[in-house]
Amino acid sequence: MSERIREFLEQQRPPTPCVVVDLEIIRQNYRNLREHLPLAQVYYAVKANPAPEVVRMLAAEGSSFDTASLPEIDLCLAAGADPRNISFGNTIKKESDVREAFGRGVRLYAIDSQQELHKIARSAPGSRVYCRILVENTGAQWPLSKKFGCAVDMAADLLTEARDLGLEPFGVSFHVGSQQTALDQWDVALARVAMLFSSLQERGIELKAVNLGGGFPAHYLDEVEGLPAYAGAVMHAITNHFGNRIPALMIEPGRSLVGDSGILQAEVVLVSKKSYDDERRWVFLDVGRFNGLAETMDEAIKYRVTTSRDGADTAPVILAGPTCDSVDVIYDKAGYCLPVDLEPGDKIEFHSTGAYTTSYASVNFNGFAPLRQYCI
Ligand SMILES: *Cc1c(COP(=O)(O)O)cnc(C)c1O
After folding, report:
1. 42 CA to centre of ligand 1 in angstroms
2. Is residue 314 part of a domain?
3. Counting atoms of ligand 1 from 1, which one is nearest the CA of 48?
4. CATH number of the domain within which 291 lies
């Protein structure tokens, strides 16, 4: 936990649950990424943490933005972003939203299907389009495969048709899956991208850019490689497949920019057992699946957890949220252990919760408010 967050929590004692995000950590993450991948233009994936303070700070640092909807575009514009630095990166857009985005000056759009291409041609004429291709998400702890992207031969046809429709066939994108722990996945994806570049060249189309997507990790329970290893793997794969004809590079980090900047503080509501011989305690918190910890679905993301009683003996627990829904169990199989003297009112912290927490919280399920966030 950063000193600034520790001080904030101690001095302000905000009501729980809440996330406290240290903007200086995000700024430093952004600068480190720029330093290690100087050739890549950073498009922050706004969905990871859409707090205006975060977007404003990144806009001031010179970041571009990957957006999925009109409200995200408006958020970026209000934060001072130039519409030319905004990518409408969702491959599933209402045509009315494309028209509105075009009206606001957005000129870069993602596609992975013919209908989407036609929407862009009609409602954002002359814009740049990049086509997302399918890649396996092997090694990703939060996969994004299947739903997005198309096969390489289809992508070639779409980008060719884009040219014929008066659009600019700008490039190719992929996403290796979020919290990707296998560093060779960029090489696998870039092999396909390079194939696509050459087959389009044969049709007289010079693509300009490769969008590397997201996938760089935050620090959860398992140790992960550092940024230099990831950046090295990506650049190695780029030169492996493109030699010295390196295309313009875009990268869309979400988790790796903001994940480690946040601490979610919650409170123990109840510690109980279901029978006299129950081997594990149930620890119920004021936070759960529906008000911030959505990524614990299937126990996919395993946060580091600390409590105000750390140091005491620990024993296995099932961690659960406060709502009246039995899927609101945070960790069961993951095998978390917590101090044996844990009591209602004790504080508990989930670390590296700056990404995909507040933006995933439900509006009012069971009357529990969306997760509060403080940016410091
Ligand atoms: C969610 C998303 C990202 C961010 O991914 P991370 O793994 O969080 O870095 C980037 N690009 C697109 C298109 C996305 O949908």
Report:
1. 12
2. yes
3. 8
4. 2.40.37.10
Asked, for residue 219, whether it belongs to a domain, the answer is yes
The pLDDT tens digits of the residues spanning 233-270 come to 999 999 999 999 999 999 999 999 999 999 999 999 99
87 CB less than 6 Å from ligand 1?
no
Q: What is the pLDDT of residues 277-316, one digit of tens each?
A: 999 999 999 999 999 999 999 999 999 999 999 999 999 9
Q: Taking a C-beta distance cutoff of 8 angstroms, is the pair 362, 297 a contact?
A: no
Place of tokens 């009609």: 122
Q: Determine the structural domain holding residue 368 and report its residue range.
A: 260-375
Q: Which of 194, 226, 257 is the last residue of a domain?
A: 257
Active site residue 324: yes
Which residues, including other chains, have CB under 8 Å from residue 336's CB and lie 6 or more apart?
305, 316, 317, 319
| Domains identified in the chain, total number | 2
Sequence length of the chain is 376
Q: Which atom of ligand 1 is nearest to the CA of 178?
A: 7
Same domain, 193 and 211: yes
> At residue 93, what are phi and psi to the nearest 5 degrees?
-130, 140
